[in-house]
Amino acid sequence: MKKVILPLLVLSFLCKEKSFSQSERIIGPVELRMTDSLCSGINKIDLSGITTQEEAIAAYSQCVGEHADLLNDLATERKVDITDLAAMKKIGIDLAFDLYKIKCEKFTKLSIAMATKTIKDLSQGDLTIGVLKRIDQKGFNY
């Protein structure tokens, strides 16, 4: 009896651990093509002419608009309706994450420009890229 319970117990813990782990989202072929097209389009943008947040958003929106045919195909690939605003917002967020994952340098600078009200200078010295390993909350008084 003990020989049967121990393997079942170990197997149940392994299945439980696997169910709680976060899975990586799989990028489809249309999404990969859209990400590559957006990155090449963004790399053609002259960032020195962008001085406000509105100009940065307009430049990115124009780049996405140039690839509207791929956007329609991406919505079809994800099996969502193109008029569903929540689903299209999720697609836009996923595209931004994909651009960041492939390390599209000008997208990082452009996203900083979209997040700030005024742009002083987007030189490389003002940009820090990294990964947070851990955030300690020790010593914080609430």
In a few lines, what is going on in this structure?
This protein is mainly α and 142 residues long. The chain contains 6 helices and no strands.
Describe the structure.
This protein is an all-alpha fold and 142 residues long. The chain is built from 6 helices and no strands. The protein has helices at 2-20, 29-43, 53-65, 68-77, 85-101, 105-115. Helix 2 (29-43) packs antiparallel against helix 4 and helix 3 packs across helix 6 (105-115). The longest helix has 19 residues, at 2-20.
Q: Helix/strand/pairing class, anyone?
A: mainly alpha
How many strand segments?
Answer: 0
Provide the low-confidence segments as ranges.
none
Name the shape in a single word.
globular
Q: Percentage of helical residues?
A: 55-70%
Mean pLDDT: 77
User: What's the end-to-end separation, in Å?
Assistant: 52 Å
Biggest sheet features: none
Order of H and E elements: HHHHHH
Provide a count of the helices.
6
Rg of Cα set: 21 Å
Q: Which percent range describes the beta-strand content? A: under 5%
